[in-house]
Write a structure and sequence with these properties.
Elements (H helix, E strand, L loop, with lengths): L3 E9 L6 H9 L6 E2 L13 E2 L12 H4 L4 H17 L10 E6 L5 H14 L7 H7 L3 H10 L5 E2 L7 H14 L5 E8 L3 H8 L31 E9 H6 L6 E10 L9 H15 L8 E3 L6 H15 L4 E3 L2 H4 L6 H15 L1 E2 L16 E2 L4 E2 L4 E8 L3 E9 L3
Parallel strand pairs: 4-5, 4-6, 9-10, 9-14, 10-12
Antiparallel strand pairs: 1-7, 1-8, 2-3, 6-7, 8-15, 11-13, 14-15
């Protein structure tokens, strides 16, 4: 099996349009969550908070390419362009063994909503732009990035809600590991829309108590947590076969050493401790890494009552209170299909800087989330090995292990 390394990263998040903006925002302990005043017009919708990203410089993408892009695809294209530049790969370096795997929960929620408004209320399909179909497809981010950058290798989309981008990275790892591709741009993208937050609201998973104090939510692992807050953006990482990266003198953030994904088979919307434990164990086994070799766990922890409880119990069972744990959802909300990639990128920068950013809004640990090593203030620490978790509706679990590369 070949070795797989990460050589480039790019991100558009609620904290700004670059990886630097993301890190600077977290260093300042800044929350991007705000009150969405326009959402109050939706009857039956109780959650009016979200973490929007700013759509900026989209016209730098030629109109011919941009026409088929919804908001999420623009985020993905911008993040992918950043990641390629960061990796040092030029357009002339792209071969038929360079592709992309980019996940999302759905296609562009805004484009899908507009299409149905035209079809259901105006009943005039002649008013539907042909580009709207390409914006709404479930693999819209992957195909638009591939078309924009001229990628002719594997083009694939993973769609597993909140686990989408970590599954994309894990799948890319397996493709390169088996020798089927040399370079893959992997990650995820998501966009905000009332229908997205509403889908969590109707199953009582969205935060509803902090509409007037939005920056106090979400509250991962906190005793006063009441649900997640949706965010948007994109995170893209360049995965590369190790020898390929070395031959071109690429900088290497880390090596991916293990990946695991599994289903719970027990509940459509509730996380499950036993299946999370199984997923992490599979990942550690794949990485040939013992629990005491993990230096930091970047938790999925979205601020839901059940999800945080089950993840904390699983971490406690496997690691006790020896490994520092934090969640980044308090800064940027839950970016859903993009969250695994964005948060992995942040974890790689923490590894590089030797610092762990704390869980924002964790003022009092919930009784059901105790017994693990919560990071509540910036922690200076040498980080050689990171475990990243993502868990999604449908009982979908995914975990990834990265190890610092030492030249």
């Amino acid at each position: 099996m070949k070795r797989v390394v990460i050589t480039g990263v790019g991100a558009v998040t609620p904290l700004g349009g670059s990886v630097d903006a993301l890190i600077q925002g977290m260093e300042l302990r800044k929350s991007a969550v705000c009150f969405m005043e326009e959402w109050s017009r939706y009857c039956g919708m109780s959650s009016h908070v979200a973490a929007p990203a700013k759509l900026k410089d989209e016209k730098n993408i030629p109109r011919q390419k941009r026409r088929s892009m919804g908001r999420m695809s623009i985020f993905a294209a911008q993040a992918a362009e950043q990641a390629l530049a960061d990796s040092g790969i030029k357009s002339d370096d792209i071969s038929n063994r360079t592709g992309c795997i980019i996940g999302s929960t759905t296609g562009s929620a805004g484009s899908i909503s507009r299409a149905f408004e035209i079809m259901l209320f105006e009943k005039d399909l002649s008013r539907l732009p042909s580009s709207m179909f390409f914006q709404g497809m479930s693999h819209t981010a992957a195909i638009n990035v591939a078309q924009y950058l001229g990628l002719t290798g594997c083009v694939m989309a993973t769609s597993a809600a909140c686990a989408s981008s970590l599954q994309a990275i894990g799948t890319g790892y397996e493709f390169i590991r088996s020798g089927r591709q040399d370079v893959l741009l992997c990650g995820g993208a998501e966009e905000l829309h009332p229908s997205v937050t509403g889908s969590f609201d109707v199953v009582f998973a969205a935060s509803v108590k902090y509409n007037q104090t939005p920056q106090k939510t979400p509250r991962p692992f906190d005793e006063d947590r009441d649900g997640l807050v949706c965010g948007e953006g994109s995170g893209i990482l360049v995965l590369e076969e190790y020898e390929h990266a070395v031959q071109r003198g690429a900088g290497i953030y880390a090596e991916i050493t293990g990946y695991g994904t599994c289903g719970s088979g027990s509940h459509i919307s509730q996380s499950d401790k036993s299946s999370i434990i199984r997923c992490i164990n599979e990942t550690l086994n794949d990485a040939r890494t013992a629990p005491d070799e993990i230096d930091y766990i970047n938790a999925h922890a979205t601020g839901t009552v059940q999800g945080d409880k089950e993840e904390a119990a699983a971490i406690g069972k496997l690691f006790g209170d020896s490994v520092p744990v934090s969640s980044l959802k308090g800064y940027i909300g839950h970016t859903l299909g993009a969250s695994g990639a964005i948060e992995l990128i942040a974890s790689l920068i923490m590894m590089e800087k030797g610092i762990i950013y704390p869980t924002l809004n964790l003022d009092g640990t919930g009784p059901d989330c105790r017994g693990i090593n919560h990071v509540k203030k910036p922690l200076k620490k040498e980080i050689n090995t990171v475990l990243k978790n993502c868990f999604a509706f449908g009982g979908v679990n995914a975990s990834l292990v990265c190890r610092k590369h030492i030249a």
